[in-house]
Amino acid sequence: MVNLALTQQQQQEKDLQRLQQLRPIDDDFMRCLLKDNVPLAEFVLRIIIDRKDLTITDCETQRDMKRLAGARSICLDAYGTDSDGKKYDLEIQKAGDGADPHRARYHSSVMDVENLHSGQEFKDLPDTYTIFITEKDFFGRGKPVYPVERINLAAGSFFEDGEHILYVNGEYRGGSELGKLMHDFNCTRADDMEFELMAERTRYLKENPEGVRQMCKVMEDMRNETTETVLLQSIKNLMETMKLTADQAMEALKISDNDKIKYAGKL
User: What is the pTM of this model?
Assistant: First the structure.
């Protein structure tokens, strides 16, 4: 019992140390920054979209989207709607392969499926903005933002289908508001940030006891999710290589009866 308590204490200390190193460019921390925080989501989007009059009416973090049977589901980092009904998917992409253009295309298409219901006209589709904030300059041209739009090549004009994709360069610095925002996205300390709205929320999550508790719970949930993912894969591997049933594979891994019920529904 003493050893277990010591292990838990060590894990808590490790979580606290890791928390102090997190930045807004880290997707898990960004989700917590934006969770139930429409003013901050609006502030960030106003700078990226370059629209001072943009009004966000709601913002949901970790929004699961899957409306077609058999289709790959995605979990949006932050999903918002503005006063005109336009939809915004804000994604943090640290790994280069996470920002693959095909992924941006898929995110955009999933938002389309999510926002057109049976009986609606195609023209009822809202404008959508898929925004990837990448830790590195994905296109390597030194630009602050890379807007991606469909073009009618023959006519030499925009296709104007309402789909917008933007890549924001997380390495960009400069005197503009976007440069300052990307500076803040890479800060670990609230006191080093340019914008008070970002600093205030960062300070809450890193220094306020309630905010710290929330962040530690997020990190604990992440560990549990990773453990579950690894265990599910182990079950599937045993079923495939040893030709076992799901129950036999879970028995071989000494999974408890209660957990068997939980995992059986996910295989």
Answer: 0.81
